[in-house]
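Interim report to the steering committee. The following record documents the input for SGS domain-containing protein (540 residues).
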Amino acid sequence: MPSASVLADQGVKAVQAGRYQEGIEKLTEALKERPAPLWLLERSKAYLRTKDFELAMWDAEKALRVAFDRANRDQIIEAQIRRAVTYFRMGQYADADVCAAWAIRLIEGARATEDDGQLGKVDANGDYLVTAQEVTEAQKPDDKEGGLASAMAQQGGNRSKAVSMKNQAFSWRLQALTQMAGLEAGAPGRKITISAKYSTPSKEPPVKKRVEEVTEQKTSSQPTTAPTAQVQQTPAQPSGPTTGKEGWENLWSQFRAVHGKKDIRSSFYQSDRTLNVDFFVKNVDKDSLQVDADLDSVTLSPVPGVGQITLLLHDKINPSETKFTVKSMKIELVLTKETPGKWPILRKQNAELFDNLALGTNPTFNQFHTLLTKQNFKEPQDVIPSFGSASAEQWAQDLASKLKEAVSGTTLSSPDATKTITAASPAQSTAPTAVPTAGLSKAASTSASGPASKGPAYPTSSKRGPTNWDKIDDEEGEEKSEDVNAFFQQVYKNADDDTRRAMMKSYIESNGTALSTDWTETKTKKYETIPPDGAEAKKW
């Protein structure tokens, strides 16, 4: 049996390679020997990528507690950032900002036990009061220089690592607060649920929810065999509680298990006049695909694997100016805004609950429960009478329709405004090729989940014009859809000379597909152009 260190090393490498389940298994074995914070953080990352949010949070908080007990400042900072990332993915944006703010305070040299009052920054209704503008204005060069110098003296680490961690935490603050600004007052994402800076998690991680079906095998010539438990990815019919809070949680868990299987990887960016949305779907028949554009929605059908895509929009468009292009790996959709200006988000609030579009923001149970209880549904079976008795596919489809009705306000815009769009030829299409971002350097780990609202594109010498940074992810380079232009401008403006060299070298050599802030790594590395799926690198 390999030692814990060997298993942990294998687990970390598996996570970095995207083999998350293997990484989880290796790290779990290693953690049986000792609760090393770095191992916990890597497993937390793997759980997050497999959407096991409760397990990801338990690992992050366990790592934080152990690091705090050992007085290891670096690991406390990393754990707080990991905690912020997890809260962000869960849609708890206020909590995400609080954790990222604590990480920055530690980097700036604050005492680990200081009472900074962050948990008390709420209004009379309990909504978090901090804004992205406030955070950006507070991030001044003088503060950065003095704070980092102090932090270095206490940490005994190198300056570039502190700069990188602070940039990462600052990025998460901007993203969380930008997303929170798009929520209505009183929304769960505006509430602080954290009770302590250094939480003590339960002794054991939460049990991963699984649906088990017991089958009995019988024959006429042999006695009945013992029941065999089999784990089913998609149950033939829902099981578990159907009433009360547990019933709601069970309904949500099983709905996502069935409906979430059809999630489509998507991306989005915008200008003042247009919205560009890409749906990464293979083998679409361009001759049969029909696109129906309305004032505030777009429907595409038939789409392989899901049948239909419904996009409920945040604001209004001009339906007659809608264009789309079908390519081998994706559908490119170009929409024209009715009123020029940046949108804070692409979709109607809570549309991610039903629309199968993986645009970076994962739907949460709190959104689901709040939306339906506001429609005066008291129990799960009030929403879906067949829940607990019908096939999973049937009631999941019914539930998706109910959610769509609730989000859209029962009915969509007037059918009279609907325009059926025919596919544009390559010469007619105005849809630009997706900007390559899948190869972003790990050092540029800055995820995004929804469009931001301002800031010009990052400078470039490309003949195609400025690169749009709307598709940058946190660690593994998966395409996401928030505009983080303002963040990169802020990082470059306030960065030291080494960080600026790293950013420019990595960006230019990779033709805009990588961005690093670590000069120690970048100065000896040759960056290659690595376009994402559906995009092709061209030499000019």
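The chain has three domains: 35-190, 257-421, 442-522. The committee is asked to note this result when reviewing the revised timeline.
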